[in-house]
Predict the structure.
Amino acid sequence: MTETSGLESTRNTSSRIRPFCGVVEKWLASAHPSPRTALEEWDGNAQLALIPLGRGFEAVRIPEDIVHAFVGSDSPATVNARLAEGLNGGPVIRDPGFRRYYALVPPGTAAVWRAPVAECIAAGTYLGVPRTDRVESNGGTSTSYWSVPMSRPNGLRTAAEVLALVRVGHSLVSEDEP
Protein backbone atom coordinates (compact mmCIF):
# COMPACT_ATOMS: atom_id res chain seq x y z
CA MET A 1 0.00 0.00 0.00
CA THR A 2 1.32 3.42 -0.94
CA GLU A 3 1.28 6.10 1.71
CA THR A 4 0.12 9.58 0.80
CA SER A 5 -0.68 12.70 2.74
CA GLY A 6 -4.32 13.42 3.44
CA LEU A 7 -4.34 16.21 0.87
CA GLU A 8 -2.86 14.08 -1.91
CA SER A 9 -5.05 11.08 -1.20
CA THR A 10 -8.22 13.08 -1.58
CA ARG A 11 -7.40 14.86 -4.86
CA ASN A 12 -9.65 13.83 -7.70
CA THR A 13 -11.23 15.16 -10.83
CA SER A 14 -14.79 14.26 -9.91
CA SER A 15 -17.26 16.72 -8.47
CA ARG A 16 -17.27 15.18 -4.99
CA ILE A 17 -15.59 17.15 -2.23
CA ARG A 18 -12.30 15.98 -0.78
CA PRO A 19 -13.02 15.00 2.82
CA PHE A 20 -9.49 15.57 4.18
CA CYS A 21 -8.19 18.72 2.53
CA GLY A 22 -5.50 20.58 4.43
CA VAL A 23 -6.09 23.20 7.08
CA VAL A 24 -4.66 25.98 4.90
CA GLU A 25 -6.98 25.06 2.04
CA LYS A 26 -9.96 24.98 4.43
CA TRP A 27 -8.97 28.38 5.84
CA LEU A 28 -8.69 29.90 2.35
CA ALA A 29 -12.03 28.36 1.32
CA SER A 30 -13.68 29.81 4.44
CA ALA A 31 -13.23 33.28 2.92
CA HIS A 32 -15.68 32.24 0.16
CA PRO A 33 -19.42 32.63 0.84
CA SER A 34 -19.69 28.95 -0.12
CA PRO A 35 -16.50 27.15 0.95
CA ARG A 36 -17.73 24.04 -0.88
CA THR A 37 -17.70 26.01 -4.14
CA ALA A 38 -14.07 27.01 -3.62
CA LEU A 39 -13.10 23.39 -2.98
CA GLU A 40 -14.93 22.31 -6.15
CA GLU A 41 -13.22 25.05 -8.19
CA TRP A 42 -9.80 23.85 -7.00
CA ASP A 43 -10.63 20.43 -8.42
CA GLY A 44 -11.43 21.94 -11.84
CA ASN A 45 -9.04 22.11 -14.78
CA ALA A 46 -7.65 25.52 -13.82
CA GLN A 47 -7.11 24.49 -10.16
CA LEU A 48 -8.12 28.05 -9.25
CA ALA A 49 -10.90 29.30 -6.98
CA LEU A 50 -12.33 32.80 -7.28
CA ILE A 51 -12.40 34.02 -3.69
CA PRO A 52 -13.84 37.39 -2.68
CA LEU A 53 -11.39 39.62 -0.88
CA GLY A 54 -12.12 41.44 2.35
CA ARG A 55 -13.49 38.69 4.57
CA GLY A 56 -10.48 36.49 5.29
CA PHE A 57 -7.74 38.46 3.59
CA GLU A 58 -6.91 41.18 1.09
CA ALA A 59 -4.13 41.26 -1.48
CA VAL A 60 -1.48 43.75 -2.57
CA ARG A 61 -1.10 43.55 -6.36
CA ILE A 62 2.58 44.15 -7.13
CA PRO A 63 3.89 44.59 -10.68
CA GLU A 64 6.45 41.99 -11.71
CA ASP A 65 9.20 44.57 -12.39
CA ILE A 66 9.05 45.78 -8.77
CA VAL A 67 9.32 42.24 -7.38
CA HIS A 68 12.12 41.31 -9.77
CA ALA A 69 14.03 44.48 -8.88
CA PHE A 70 13.59 43.77 -5.16
CA VAL A 71 14.97 40.23 -5.45
CA GLY A 72 17.55 41.08 -8.13
CA SER A 73 16.44 38.34 -10.49
CA ASP A 74 13.64 37.10 -12.71
CA SER A 75 14.50 33.42 -12.22
CA PRO A 76 11.41 31.80 -10.64
CA ALA A 77 13.42 29.76 -8.13
CA THR A 78 15.41 32.80 -7.03
CA VAL A 79 12.33 35.03 -6.91
CA ASN A 80 10.43 32.48 -4.81
CA ALA A 81 13.28 32.02 -2.33
CA ARG A 82 14.01 35.73 -1.93
CA LEU A 83 10.34 36.66 -1.66
CA ALA A 84 9.91 34.04 1.06
CA GLU A 85 12.89 35.53 2.87
CA GLY A 86 11.87 39.15 2.31
CA LEU A 87 8.31 38.56 3.53
CA ASN A 88 9.19 36.11 6.32
CA GLY A 89 7.39 33.27 4.55
CA GLY A 90 4.27 35.33 3.88
CA PRO A 91 2.04 33.96 1.11
CA VAL A 92 2.45 35.31 -2.42
CA ILE A 93 0.54 34.30 -5.54
CA ARG A 94 2.20 34.67 -8.95
CA ASP A 95 0.04 35.55 -11.97
CA PRO A 96 2.39 35.15 -14.95
CA GLY A 97 -0.34 35.99 -17.48
CA PHE A 98 -0.69 39.53 -16.17
CA ARG A 99 2.90 39.76 -14.87
CA ARG A 100 1.87 40.39 -11.26
CA TYR A 101 2.38 39.07 -7.77
CA TYR A 102 -0.22 39.17 -4.99
CA ALA A 103 0.95 39.34 -1.37
CA LEU A 104 -1.84 38.27 0.98
CA VAL A 105 -2.46 40.69 3.84
CA PRO A 106 -5.03 41.01 6.66
CA PRO A 107 -8.49 42.48 6.08
CA GLY A 108 -8.48 46.24 6.58
CA THR A 109 -5.10 46.78 4.90
CA ALA A 110 -6.65 48.58 1.90
CA ALA A 111 -8.02 51.28 4.23
CA VAL A 112 -4.48 52.26 5.28
CA TRP A 113 -2.49 51.34 2.15
CA ARG A 114 -0.62 54.31 0.65
CA ALA A 115 1.59 53.00 -2.15
CA PRO A 116 0.27 54.03 -5.58
CA VAL A 117 2.70 51.75 -7.44
CA ALA A 118 1.08 48.65 -5.89
CA GLU A 119 -2.65 48.54 -5.24
CA CYS A 120 -4.20 46.85 -2.23
CA ILE A 121 -7.37 45.19 -3.44
CA ALA A 122 -10.17 44.39 -1.03
CA ALA A 123 -13.93 43.89 -0.71
CA GLY A 124 -15.74 43.86 -4.02
CA THR A 125 -12.89 42.11 -5.84
CA TYR A 126 -12.41 38.41 -6.45
CA LEU A 127 -8.91 36.95 -6.57
CA GLY A 128 -8.01 33.78 -8.45
CA VAL A 129 -6.44 31.70 -5.66
CA PRO A 130 -4.56 28.60 -6.81
CA ARG A 131 -4.99 25.24 -5.17
CA THR A 132 -2.51 24.97 -2.31
CA ASP A 133 -0.35 22.40 -4.11
CA ARG A 134 0.14 24.60 -7.22
CA VAL A 135 3.62 25.85 -6.40
CA GLU A 136 5.18 26.19 -9.83
CA SER A 137 4.32 27.37 -13.30
CA ASN A 138 2.32 24.89 -15.32
CA GLY A 139 4.53 24.26 -18.34
CA GLY A 140 4.70 27.80 -19.61
CA THR A 141 0.99 28.53 -19.25
CA SER A 142 -0.24 31.73 -17.69
CA THR A 143 -2.06 30.00 -14.82
CA SER A 144 -1.50 31.43 -11.34
CA TYR A 145 0.48 29.52 -8.74
CA TRP A 146 1.94 30.05 -5.26
CA SER A 147 5.31 31.78 -5.52
CA VAL A 148 5.47 31.54 -1.72
CA PRO A 149 2.93 28.97 -0.48
CA MET A 150 0.79 29.74 2.54
CA SER A 151 2.31 27.70 5.37
CA ARG A 152 -0.45 28.04 7.97
CA PRO A 153 -3.98 29.39 8.30
CA ASN A 154 -4.03 33.17 8.64
CA GLY A 155 -0.26 33.31 8.00
CA LEU A 156 -0.57 36.73 6.38
CA ARG A 157 2.03 39.51 6.21
CA THR A 158 1.55 42.97 7.62
CA ALA A 159 1.08 46.03 5.46
CA ALA A 160 4.43 47.35 6.72
CA GLU A 161 6.32 44.24 5.55
CA VAL A 162 4.77 44.33 2.08
CA LEU A 163 5.16 48.11 1.83
CA ALA A 164 8.90 47.82 2.58
CA LEU A 165 9.30 45.35 -0.30
CA VAL A 166 7.30 47.59 -2.66
CA ARG A 167 9.27 50.72 -1.75
CA VAL A 168 12.68 49.08 -2.18
CA GLY A 169 11.67 47.39 -5.44
CA HIS A 170 10.15 50.59 -6.82
CA SER A 171 13.23 52.64 -5.93
CA LEU A 172 15.44 50.11 -7.74
CA VAL A 173 13.19 50.20 -10.82
CA SER A 174 13.27 54.02 -10.73
CA GLU A 175 17.09 53.99 -10.62
CA ASP A 176 17.19 51.90 -13.80
CA GLU A 177 14.94 54.25 -15.77
CA PRO A 178 16.67 56.86 -17.95
User: Anything to note?
Assistant: Confidence is low (pLDDT under 50) at residues 1-20. The two ends are 62 Å apart (CA to CA).
